[in-house]
Known about the structure:
Layout: H1 3-10, H2 14-20, H3 23-37, E1 43-49, H4 54-59, H5 63-73, E2 84-90, E3 95-100, H6 102-108, H7 110-125, H8 129-147, E4 164-165
Parallel strand pairs: 1-2, 1-4
Antiparallel strand pairs: 2-3
Amino acid sequence: MQVIRFLKHIFSGPWRVRLAFSKRSLQAIEAAIADSEASHLGEIRFVVESALEIGELLQGVTPRQRALEVFSQCRIWDTEHNTGVLIYLLFADRDVEIVADRGIHARVGEAVWARICEQMEAQLRAGRFELGVIEGIAHITAQLQQHFPALNKENPNEIADAPLVL
């Protein structure tokens, strides 16, 4: 385990997330997700976690491993068209992971998701948290519109649009 990573997680409590993402900021992200989902058959969920628990750090849990766990816990995979997309931010690491369900992932591929993550992480490093997330949502929206457009089909909201802060 890296000492610097351990210290970042120990000192990155939920209060740091509240500083970076105000109530207004979380509402703006929720609105961006709702607007996005009106144009395609996908579902987007943004989850930000302040830090990993000590046990997870000692086990060497990576942001990707934790994102996969959150994807399952939040049931992002449970959509009619298998088009759920999780944007997971591990705040202490400033690491963004996108986990997409098999319906959309098969059409988009890992390289596109990785590029979106890199763009979001660049904004986060610059301290532009809300902008980074909203731009990420816009890039994901473009993929979902291309591969799963709404086209006047019934489009229920299957996953909550509100950001989840863990």
